[in-house]
Amino acid sequence: MKALIVCTSKSHGNTRKVADTIGSVLDARVVDPSEITAAELADYDLVGFGSGVYWMALDARLREFVDALPAGQGREAFVFATSGLPEPKFRPYLRNLGDQLTEKGFEVVGGFACRGLDTMGPLALVGGLNKGRPSPDDLTSARGFAEQLRGRFA
Ligand SMILES: Cc1cc2nc3c(=O)[nH]c(=O)nc-3n(C[C@H](O)[C@H](O)[C@H](O)COP(=O)(O)O)c2cc1C
Known about the structure:
Layout: E1 3-8, H1 14-26, E2 29-31, E3 46-52, H2 60-67, E4 76-83, H3 93-103, E5 107-115, H4 136-152
Parallel strand pairs: 1-2, 1-3, 3-4, 4-5
Helix pairs in contact: 1-4
The site of flavin mononucleotide (FMN) has 21 residues, from helix 1 and strand 4.
């Protein structure tokens, strides 16, 4: 099984930590959308897509990358995110990304989310929300998630 992870992480590298943890289990390269072309995805059986949450949405560069992919992908995908706050019910970031991927012909086989250090605006004055996160426990959970994904191909 050959896996790739496409990740944008522009604030503290929180999402990149999760991506690298999942990537180490799946033996997957982790790339920014600018480092990969749509055509290159054809080399992979499983592709992960993740980003931080900014202004109540996943990063536009990740969403635009998915938007630009040709339909009929016919491969498996998973989604992940880090955020300052839990996902609001009226704004299901990961489900929306999953729906976008499904439209492109991916089979979405899992999702992972955890909190990340958030120093947006006035939160910086108090050292931020979720200090130390993703925590070692968060990364252990990410590893468990990746092991489940890997098990699908065993
Ligand atoms: C400009 C900005 C806007 C943000 N907006 C939100 C938000 O709407 N909801 C939320 O839960 N977290 C928000 N956050 C917190 C980030 O989602 C959180 O810090 C995340 O872990 C950042 O991931 P990164 O370090 O990979 O960029 C925001 C952070 C920044 C810098």
